[in-house]
Amino acid sequence: MNDKQPPVFIIVAGLAGSGKTSFIAAVSDANVAPVQRTIDRAASGYRLHYDYGQIVVDSSLIVRLLAPPASRDLALARQLPADTLGVILTVNSVDTESFAGAEALIAEYRRHASVPCLVAATMQDLPGALSPEALRACLNVPDAVPIVSCRATDTASATAVVIRLLHLLIDRIEGRL
Ligand SMILES: Nc1nc2c(ncn2[C@@H]2O[C@H](COP(=O)(O)OP(=O)(O)O)[C@@H](O)[C@H]2O)c(=O)[nH]1
Ligand SMILES: [Mg+2]
Q1: 56 vs 73, 116, 135, CA distance in Å?
Q2: Does 8-173 carry CATH code 3.40.50.720?
Q3: I need a surface site. Which of 6, 103, 115, 132 has the fewest CB within 10 A?
């Protein structure tokens, strides 16, 4: 019997400069430094460059992390890959000028995604970073969506965000959410 599962996906979405590439590099296995992977869309005839990384949990389970190019974000929000576990929405906590765009992106994912979503508030190590509570108010994020402090360049910090997303998924499977 072949017990190898097809890969499952976590989408990392956010505006340019919000820490997506850093986040994927920090959580991915060392031998899968994030590469830009071109995904061929044979049916529609175009090619896209996604940031890509992966976590090999064991011989039967691989979690792939994908960050879509910003131009693709809204289209992807409406049609996530079938085996998507959840969405991590990165927000640059110091870049107040990005907040309007970040708010719109978060709202779009929440409107369309049937999988758990959370916000990773990146750049929390920098002076002037807004707290998760302040970001919640600025970006109109409802309480049901966690906002997790994050340093996207740090493996432990980024991994904690992934684990939080997995707990959200478990809560949902067990009917607690
Ligand atoms: N200090 C700090 N720098 C970060 C953090 N996340 C990303 N950066 C830096 O911010 C810049 C943009 O990050 P990047 O991952 O390229 O963002 P992307 O455009 O969303 O892929 C890079 O120079 C990163 O090193 C963070 O949490 N803290
Ligand atoms: Mg990038």
Answers
A1: 26, 21, 33
A2: no
A3: 6
Backbone angles phi, psi at 27, to 5 degrees: -95, -15
Confidence of residue 33 (pLDDT cuts 50, 70, 90): low
Q: How many CB atoms lie within 10 A of CB 145?
A: 17
With a 6 Å cutoff on the Cβ, whether 12 touches ligand 1 is: no
Q: Do 162 and 27 meet the contact criterion of CB atoms below 8 Å apart?
A: yes
**Atom 4 of ligand 1: nearest residue by CA position:** 123
Q: What is the pTM of this model?
A: 0.91
Mean pLDDT of 73-90: 88
CB of 88 closer than 8 Å to CB of 10? yes
Tell me if 93 CB under 6 Å of ligand 1: no
Q: Which of 22, 119, 122 to mutate to test the pocket of ligand 1 (most atoms within 8 A of CB)?
A: 22
Domain ranges for the chain: 8-173
- pLDDT number for residue 68: 84
> Which among 164, 139, 138 has a CA at the least distance from the CA of 149?
164
Tell me, in angstroms, the distance from the centre of ligand 2 to residue 116's CA.
22
